[in-house]
């Protein structure tokens, strides 16, 4: 009997065993599948976007029987089963996506660490959420265990597309940085890790020398299927003043053979028509001034991809001379803090770039120490004709804050006029914190999590993020920039001054009393 040859991959002390032919699942179960895709897109300012997309499907675990994990990460499956998670999203983002230069972002992103989970409804939903964040903190070597009640919310409008029954929880850490400690466990969850396929290009030395980086994972489960998706988006520089460069020079590594267990392995290159791509792609597709080159790594071996620019691109500022038709997001949002002293306000500008009205949901979680006044809320929209008018929200949901308990949550449903600029503003007062509640760099200020604007795109819409499934309605989230609020800060040197002053007085007092108690005083008479 012929025994299938096994491929054993070892990395960082862990092993992955993959057969030459996919194993057949028992009758009535869902077979496991794995796909890997890489999208290389040249941006308007000369930089390059690398978007890695790995997706795994597998059977859902049941409590009544033991579950054997093959391609799906066992730790993720066990976490989902233990804490009753039907939907989970986790993202670590560093850097700001510049939609004016780079167009539509590949996926939803907000600076920091974000966790969204749909939990089983019940009285212990908060305990499940706490256990989930602590488990994810250990798996991804992050500070997610600090997502406590002060930074946890339960959105009702912004994530309505994700609610399938149960308790929805959302947490955000705006100061969480992305580092190799988060990337290493993320890579180890891949069936072939970074040993083969497009994952071989995941070079930490190049990934963290970037302008934008987002590492994310998403878990969805239903009655019998568990879907796990890992994405990584990075914007890097191209070799300076070089009209011809290769993908291996950009990533610091070369493409490897496809992962043996992958059912699909592809590379998609989106470049201007004046850019030559070698070797020749398996298929091409033109759209406007750009051409999409598709490479099927399972049909043939591709070691490297070389890009050669024509003579019209004489410097980096002209890499894409026809970038005027670069699609921009339908909705753009920016936020900043106004005022000074003990009071201030938050102002958010939402721009609708479409020629039709857009229905959006606005979500903002304000920390309890910024005492928000809901009655100061004002929404004004300026149309294409320059006329400014008051905009009445379709729905308003406001949850007041509890000191050291929960943040204030403001949710609005707005109907944005076409080609309009909407300004949303409200006021707050700054609270006083205990000296022990200030961070080590208290004079820097407190970072406020970004606001979120969500909307839906029709299946026929072309300006869609790469994370959207083609041919389906796509729910898109737009994140503003994190805000920086300065709170009243005590003089942390005062305890030192008090200690030194007190010690000085005690030393003088102790020395005087000690001399009086230990010295033997005697009257000396002059010698005759």
Quick structural overview:
The chain contains seven helices and 28 strands.
Q: Which labels suit this protein?
A:
528 residues; mainly beta; five-stranded antiparallel beta sheet; 7 helices; 28 strands; disordered N terminus
How would you portray this structure in words?
The protein has 7 helices and 28 strands. The protein is mostly beta strands. An 11-stranded mixed sheet has the order 7-8-6-5-9-10-4-3-12-15-14, covered by helices on one side. Strand 14 and strand 15 (290-296) form a beta hairpin. The radius of gyration is 29 Å and the shape is globular. The model is unreliable at 1-29 (pLDDT under 50).
Indicate the mean pLDDT.
Answer: 84
* Sheet of most strands: 11 strands, mixed
Structural class: mainly beta
Helix share bin: 10-25%
Radius of gyration: 29 Å
How many helical elements?
7
Q: Based on Cα principal axes, name the global outline.
A: globular
Poorly predicted tracts of residues: 1-29
Give the strand line-up of the largest sheet: 7-8-6-5-9-10-4-3-12-15-14
First-to-last CA distance: 125 Å
């Amino acid at each position: 009997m012929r025994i299938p040859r096994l491929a054993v991959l070892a990395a960082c002390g862990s092993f992955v065993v993959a057969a030459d032919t996919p194993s057949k699942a028992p009758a009535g179960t869902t077979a496991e599948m794995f796909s890997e895709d890489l999208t290389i897109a040249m941006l308007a300012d000369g930089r390059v976007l690398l978007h890695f997309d790995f997706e795994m499907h597998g059977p859902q675990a049941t409590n009544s029987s033991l579950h054997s994990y093959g391609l799906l990460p066992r730790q993720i499956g066990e976490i989902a089963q233990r804490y009753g998670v039907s939907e989970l999203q986790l993202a670590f983002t560093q850097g700001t996506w510049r939609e004016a230069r780079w167009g539509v972002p590949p996926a939803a992103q907000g600076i920091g660490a974000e966790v969204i989970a749909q939990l089983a409804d019940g009285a212990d939903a908060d305990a499940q959420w706490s256990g989930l964040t602590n488990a994810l903190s250990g798996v991804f070597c992050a500070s997610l265990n600090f997502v406590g009640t002060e930074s946890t919310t339960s959105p009702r409008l912004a994530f309505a597309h994700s609610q399938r029954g149960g308790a929805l929880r959302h947490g955000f850490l705006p100061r969480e940085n992305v580092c190799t400690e988060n990337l290493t466990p993320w890579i180890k969850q891949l069936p072939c890790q970074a040993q083969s396929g497009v994952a071989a290009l995941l070079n930490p030395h190049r990934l963290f020398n970037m302008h934008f980086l987002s590492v994310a994972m998403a878990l969805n489960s239903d009655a019998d299927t568990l879907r796990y998706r890992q994405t990584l988006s990075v914007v890097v520089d191209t070799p300076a003043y070089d009209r011809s460069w290769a993908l291996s020079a950009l990533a610091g590594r070369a493409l490897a053979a496809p992962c043996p267990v992958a059912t699909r392995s592809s590379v998609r290159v989106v470049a201007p028509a004046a850019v030559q791509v070698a070797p020749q792609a398996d298929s091409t597709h033109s759209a406007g001034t750009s051409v999409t080159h598709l490479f099927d790594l399972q049909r043939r071996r591709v070691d490297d991809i070389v890009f050669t620019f024509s003579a019209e691109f004489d410097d980096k500022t002209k890499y894409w001379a026809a970038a005027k038709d670069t699609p921009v997001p339908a909705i753009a949002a920016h936020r900043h803090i106004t005022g000074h002293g003990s009071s201030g306000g938050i102002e958010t500008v939402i721009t609708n770039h479409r020629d039709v009205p857009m229905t959006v949901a606005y979500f903002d979680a304000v920390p309890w120490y910024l005492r928000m006044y809901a009655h100061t809320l004002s929404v004004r929209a300026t149309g294409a004709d320059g006329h400014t008018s008051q905009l009445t929200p379709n729905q308003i949901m406001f949850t007041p804050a509890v000191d050291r308990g929960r943040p204030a949550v403001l949710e609005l449903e707005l109907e944005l006029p076409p080609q309009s600029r909407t300004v949303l503003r409200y006021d707050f007062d700054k609270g006083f914190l205990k000296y022990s509640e200030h961070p080590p760099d208290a004079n820097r200020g407190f970072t406020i999590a970004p606001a979120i604007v969500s909307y839906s795109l029709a299946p026929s819409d072309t300006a869609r993020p790469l994370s959207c499934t083609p041919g389906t309605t796509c729910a898109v989230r737009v994140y503003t920039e994190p805000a920086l609020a300065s709170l009243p800060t005590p003089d942390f040197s005062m305890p030192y001054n008090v200690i030194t002053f007190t010690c000085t007085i005690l030393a003088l007092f102790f020395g005087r009393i000690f001399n009086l108690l230990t010295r033997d005083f005697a009257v000396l008479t002059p010698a005759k």
